[in-house]
């Protein structure tokens, strides 16, 4: 499915290649809208179901983030580590284990994940990618202009 010249199936479901900042923000905006609809519609029906849908939305968010990380020339382990921690936090919250550990530990864990999310968003969303080809493929800006 293409929209605005972007193949959303490839953008949201594969980790190959590189994407520029504009494509990253378009994909990120689509995921924000999906997350908001999930919270408003499904969250009003069932918090557990909304959490499961949120976990499912992590897959396209991961794919978009990995492609943008590829453009920046970063090792994929930074994005992978963030997503593992974020999903672990959601699963632990869903299971209710933080009720036993206390709100303080849950808050600290959430704060660390929030700080990492801000750093990742600035790194992937605001900073330029590697100019020219890198180990992950050709520069997406050069292929658009050609």
Tell me the strand order in the biggest sheet. 1-2
Structural class: mainly alpha
Kindly provide the radius of gyration, computed on alpha-carbon positions and rounded to a whole number of angstroms.
17 Å
**What is the H-and-E element order?**
EEHHHHHHH
How much of the residues is beta strand, in percent? under 5%
Kindly state the mean pLDDT as a whole number? 89
N-end to C-end Cα span? 23 Å
Helix content: over 70%
Largest β-sheet summary: 2 strands, antiparallel
Question: What's the short version?
Answer:
The protein has 146 residues and is mostly helical. It has helices at 8-13, 21-45, 47-72, 77-95, 97-101, 103-126, 140-145; strands spanning 2-3, 6-7.
Please, could you describe this protein's structure?
With 146 residues, the chain is mostly helical. The chain contains 7 helices and 2 strands. It has helices at residues 8-13, 21-45, 47-72, 77-95, 97-101, 103-126, 140-145; strands at 2-3, 6-7. A two-stranded antiparallel sheet has the order 1-2. Helix 3 runs antiparallel to helix 4 (77-95).
């Amino acid at each position: 499915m293409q929209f605005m010249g972007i193949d959303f199936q490839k953008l949201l479901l594969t980790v190959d290649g590189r994407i520029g900042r504009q494509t990253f923000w378009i994909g990120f905006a689509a995921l924000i809208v999906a997350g908001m609809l999930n919270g408003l519609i499904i969250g009003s029906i069932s918090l557990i179901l909304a959490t499961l849908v949120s976990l499912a939305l992590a897959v396209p968010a991961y794919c978009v983030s990995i492609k943008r990380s590829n453009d920046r020339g970063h090792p994929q382990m930074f994005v992978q580590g963030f997503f593992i921690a974020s999903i672990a936090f959601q699963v632990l919250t869903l299971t209710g284990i933080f009720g036993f550990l206390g709100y303080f530990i849950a808050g600290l864990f959430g704060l660390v994940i929030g700080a990492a999310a801000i750093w990742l968003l600035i790194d992937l969303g605001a900073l330029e990618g590697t100019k020219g080809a890198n180990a992950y493929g050709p520069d997406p800006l050069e292929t658009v202009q050609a």
